[in-house]
């Protein structure tokens, strides 16, 4: 039982004990002589305390008792295959306790590994191409030379008219323009190489993903409850391979009367009491986390369930137990 429940129980018992004690004093005083009754300060004190204690006793923490709740699983997950292939290995069996992320089985990934190697080589080539600016520097050298050659011929023709033919001058001008275009082309090809690098990087990431999806890992910590395939069997994406359950927290599901449902019911502390085969009581603390908004028209009840801590695993799914809900 948690601290909240202990405090509420202690408060109710203390108020009840005080109420009965004061009632006894008042009764004794009232049955005494009339003169004592009329002016006795004990009588006045007793009745004052009664009027103070009675509302407090009535308003003290209210308890809703649910005679029978069913214990159910909360943390339960089916683990499927994420790729098609033959199971190369199965590393767990029923009853194995696993941690989140632990490898449970391996689908054959031979082809995926080869694709990964090819993608890695292609990325290496693309990286070198994306970082190689030799073509740009070569084109810039050729452009600078042809531009200067054109300028020399042009000045020579100005200084000595007709020393350079028109066709020769025109060819030099066209060569200079063509080399300028080659510089732009080299820049464009370098940008394309960088884009190819990004594409091959994506291809490598996809190859890594294809390897990863062939590893079947535990999505949560718990215990293997079912193993549905053995090594060597063919599986397809979405096909269930394992079932994992955890009983560290469980759901206690039951019903209360609709007129017992209040605003503070959700979030209220609960105590689940289980009696073992020897009749011994075992208590578990929890909290109401769900209150249905639907009322059963036949019996006027509302479904609720509480989340109960079960660190020692003493409470098991399928148990029937009692539950007390403490309201402020």
UniProtKB/TrEMBL annotation:
GO terms for molecular function: efflux transmembrane transporter activity. GO terms for cellular component: efflux pump complex. Residues 263-327 form the Multidrug resistance protein MdtA-like beta-barrel domain. Pfam families: Beta-barrel_RND, BSH_RND. Residues 76-245 form the Multidrug resistance protein MdtA-like barrel-sandwich hybrid domain. The chain crosses the membrane at residues 12-30, 42-61. Keywords: Membrane, Transmembrane, Transmembrane helix. PANTHER family: HLYD FAMILY OF SECRETION PROTEINS, MULTIDRUG RESISTANCE PROTEIN MDTA. This is Multidrug resistance protein MdtN. It comes from Stieleria maiorica.
